[in-house]
Design brief:
- The protein is built from eight helices and twelve strands.
- It is an alpha/beta fold.
- It has two domains: 98 residues, Leucine Dehydrogenase, chain A, domain 1 (Rossmann fold); 127 residues, Rossmann fold, CATH 3.40.50.720.
- Strand 5 and strand 6 form a beta hairpin.
Length: 251
Amino acid sequence: MGKKVRKINRYGLVGKNIEYSFSRSYFAEKFQKEKIENCSYENFDLESIEKIEAVLEKENIKGLNVTIPYKESIINYLDRISEDAEIIGAVNTIRFLDNGTTEGHNTDAHGFETALLKKWNNHSKKALILGTGGASKAIEYVLKKMNVEPLFVSRKPLKDQISYDQIDVNIMTSYLLIINCTPIGTHPDLDKAPNIPYDLLTKDHFLFDLIYNPKKTLFLRKGIEIGCTIQNGLHMLEQQAEKSWDIWTEI
């Protein structure tokens, strides 16, 4: 008899235009460094969320991460979601159970909170969230948990949100924590930044950018010039990835 070949446990990332994603290289390095065998991590680049059904049916998929723009629409394709994911309204981690069902989780909240607390010094009781996508909902969840009042800024504001041109001196004085949840400032738009009044920044402001590449976006560089506390999204991504692994492997 020949040697029995063990099946590869497959993990991956679901999103759109994700060729240069963080997750695939992170998990490839993790598997090698920690000598985790019989595991692979691949990208599932989908033109539309409807294509997810074919991914969910692939053989030996054990876990998936979900990124832009599917963190909210993915929920309709899952059998159940965790309590925190339901409150947040977005899923970035899918666990495949032994009975064949799927369970959605949100590890963005854990990642953001862990990263923010690295430099957090009770900077503010109010925060501006730039952008209203799936990741921004996890940010809102964490801020409320920390008793920090969030205010969404959007190009097309809904009720209880404001537009960028409504950010005035009073807003900038009151909201000292500013989190960029938009893709503005990442490749190829390295010379762009969210449209806020940077001349009103002070050394008391904390600028947090969910972008990790480049390490210092124009948004963050403008903060550095003033002496603001800054943080990019790398530690958040690392923490949410590790939390995803814990969920997939039931640690």
